[in-house]
Design brief:
Helix 3 packs across helix 4. The chain has a single domain, classed as Rossmann fold (3-Layer(aba) Sandwich), CATH 3.40.50. The chain is globular. The longest helix is centred in the first third of the chain and has 16 residues. It has 249 residues and is an alpha/beta fold. It has nine helices and eleven strands. Strand 3, helix 3 and strand 4 form a beta-alpha-beta unit.
């Protein structure tokens, strides 16, 4: 079995972890249709990281922290990102990982001026980038699960924008031949995001949002999930056909 490295950026809150596990668990579950194993690196607890030039696919997870807080472990990971970027070795950042890659390589990350992006929302692929291997088999418009307060406000020089949403134009970025990032969560599943919404109902109501309606609108997003399979399949030369793309968590 080939291996995928998951760099877990901190643990979820205790109540979420008790019910649903951790980010490493979610990525492991999401990758189950592929013949791979996962190695979880808890980057906030242990300084060890894969070698920057290791040829296996590496995924940086989301986090309940903020990139602009710059904790020591995150700054160390940013340095590792810069080293890996130089090697052109395969890398995929998700949510926090997406933002950290952008910041580490010269972009700007901060709180979105229009507030958080939350729910099951459409992401639109730019037609001129639709042949990118990360987007294989994806339509120009697909639903994705999103929850974030900070965003990539300015993309690093030379980085290509592949897709955006109405709220955030930088939903998918390409940093190199085998290095990408995505703001949405292809590893999430319905019960997880619904719970994340309802546990923050009071805050969301204070923001003028309707948490019950947001939660009811959440649905599985197999097309967004395919982005993970495309990344791993492209790097490891594994088939990711239509039958795989229909599998849901």
């Amino acid at each position: 079995m080939k291996q995928v490295h998951i760099l877990q950026a901190g643990d979820p809150p205790a109540d979420i972890q008790a019910q649903f596990g951790t980010q490493g668990d979610w990525f492991t579950q999401a990758l189950q249709p592929l013949p791979v194993t996962t190695h979880i690196w808890q980057v906030d607890k242990h300084p060890d990281l894969p070698p920057p030039d290791c040829p296996e696919p590496v995924i940086i997870t989301g986090s309940w922290g903020m990139v602009t807080d710059r904790p020591d472990w995150s700054e160390a990971l940013a340095g590792w990102i810069r080293q890996r970027h130089q090697t052109q070795a395969p890398l995929l950042g998700i949510c926090y990982g997406h933002q950290l890659m952008a910041q580490a390589l010269g972009g700007q990350v901060d709180y979105h001026p229009q507030g958080r992006e939350l729910g099951c929302l459409p992401v639109c692929v730019h037609p001129q980038t639709s042949q990118d291997p990360l987007l294989a088999g994806l339509p120009f418009r697909f639903k994705a699960l999103l929850t974030h307060q900070q965003s990539v406000l300015r993309v690093p020089e030379g980085v290509q924008v592949l897709a955006g949403s109405a709220h955030d134009p930088h939903q998918i970025l390409r940093f190199g031949p085998a290095q990408w990032s995505a703001q949405f969560h292809p590893e999430f599943f319905t019960d997880l995001l619904r719970y994340c919404i309802i546990r923050n109902a009071q805050q969301l109501q204070a923001e003028g949002r309707q948490p019950q309606a947001l939660a009811q609108n959440v649905q599985e997003t197999p097309q967004a999930r395919r982005l993970l399979w495309n990344f791993v399949g492209h790097v490891l030369n594994l088939p990711v056909g239509p039958s795989t793309a229909t599998i849901q968590a």
